[in-house]
Amino acid sequence: MNTPRATRRALLVGSLLLLAGAAQAETSTQDAIAEYREMFGDDNPAELWQSRGEALWHTARGPKQANLTACDLGLGPGVIEGAYAQLPRWFDDTQQVQDLETRLVSCVTTLQGIPREEFLKVKFGDGEKKSELEALTAYVVAASRGKPIALPMQHPAEQAAYALGKAAFSYRAGPHDFACATCHGDAGKRIRLQELPQLTTAAGAREAYTYWPAYRISQGELRTMEWRLQDCFRQQRLPQLKFGSEVAIGLTMFLAKNAEGGTLAAPGIKR
Amino acid sequence: MSDPMRIRAAVKGEKVEVKILMSHVMETGQRKDAEGAVVPAHYITKVTASCNGRDVLSADWGPSVSKNPYLSFRFKGGAKGDKLKVTWTDTAGDSRSDEVSIG
Q1: Chain B residues touching chain A at CB-CB below 8 Å
Q2: pLDDT digits (tens, 9 = 90+) for B9-60
Q3: ipTM for this model
Q4: A43·B3 Cβ contact <8 A
Q5: A41 in contact with B, Cβ within 8 Å
Q6: Chain B touched by A117 (CB under 8 Å)
């Protein structure tokens, strides 16, 4: 009888297939995302947010019935081309270092007179609940596509923000004693099948930063950098990262500075 | 109000290549929200495209199509400057039409 041998062989083949399957699963997830991106070509669902943002930018709204064409994102009133590549930066009028999202909030509140709470009621969109902030962010970010990241970094407050971000990146806290650096401080790490960029290096930071904000396939939403950081904090089981807080700006500054010289390709498409 | 579609249509050889991005939640009716209540179904059921009034595509869609759907197809018999009109209708009875000139 050769049944046992046949069974053994079948088991052996089976386990080999399983091994091959595991290796294949890793590459095929990456491949599937690459294939998905390729299918879109130059198209990206983020364009739906961009066009909504463009309309919002040019529409007179709020108590002051103004549009946002006078909004100064650092390069002068109304200049959006290349503005995102130089953020975060210091702004004299608000006496703060601001990232794109918080700067947009300033413009909306001062130019249009819309209260901050009202504008930020939907910070992060969810299906039918659409976020104006995400749409405006997508519109402005897209105008920096192809531009190299170049932060001014002259003002002491900008340098302080970078230093704070750098410290926060390695600060271990929470029930898991986690820091950003736990996952993003070494090369070749991954969570399940998701490869993790080493954000302390120029290559790793560029890989990540130049594609955010991004359309997140698994959520069907466009996500901003503020969302990305907030979700990292959630995954680390840290208290919720406050929108526009010094730590949020600092971490953005740290990542942007590390990615300096990288060419912006945002809004990108992510898993 | 639904957001406009992004439509690109260009002559490629003998055919016209069309790429459409639609903004839609495409709720399957199978998900539950944080309170455990079923999120009601809301998805596109019909997509049609016509070129200068001639139907070139008609599709019946269901809940398995992704959120913010992307549709690409080619058809014969279109020329530069022709008007391509795309229409979708969903389970809520909403519908949206957008039109572009073939480039």
Answers
A1: 3-4, 6, 8, 19, 21, 23, 25-27, 66-68, 70, 72
A2: 999 999 999 999 999 999 999 999 889 999 999 999 999 999 999 999 999 9
A3: 0.75
A4: no
A5: yes
A6: no
Q: Which domain holds residue B67?
A: 6-101
Residue B54 — φ and ψ, nearest 5°? Answer: -95, 125
What is the total count of domains within chain B? 1
Tokens of A38: 């390729």
Backbone dihedral angles phi then psi of residue A227, each to the nearest 5 degrees: -65, -45
pLDDT in tens, A246-266: 999 999 999 999 999 999 998
Please state, for a pLDDT cut of 90, what percent of chain A lies above it.
Answer: 71
Q: Does residue A52 sit at the B interface (CB-CB below 8 Å)?
A: yes
Across the A:B interface, residue pairs with CB atoms under 8 Å apart total 32
Is A43 within 8 Å of B27 when comparing Cβ atoms?
no
The structural domains of chain A, ordered by start, are 46-270 (1.10.760.10)
| pTM recorded for the entire structure | 0.82
Q: What is the CATH number of the domain that holds B89?
A: 2.60.40.10
In order of A31, A127, A245, B7, B83, the CA distances from B71 in angstroms are 21, 20, 40, 10, 18
Whether residue B1 is contained in a domain is answered as no
> Which residue does chain B place closest to A219, by CA atoms?
B67
| Closest-CA residue of chain B to A52 | B3
> Residue B14 corresponds to which amino acid?
E
Does residue A180 carry a catalytic annotation? no
Distance, in angstroms, between A119 CA and closest chain B CA? 19
Buried b (16+ CB within 10 A) or exposed e, A76-89: eeeebebbbbbbbb
- Residue B17 pairs in a beta bridge with B10, B74
The runs of H, that is alpha helices, within chain A are 3-40, 46-58, 100-107, 116-119, 132-142, 156-169, 180-184, 202-209, 225-235, 246-258
List Cβ neighbours of A152 (8 Å cut-off, separation of 6 or more). Answer: A74, A86, A89, A90, A158
Determine the Cα–Cα distance for residues B57 and B48; give it in Å rounded to an integer: 5
What's the CA angle centered on B68, arms A107 and A240, to 5 degrees?
Answer: 50
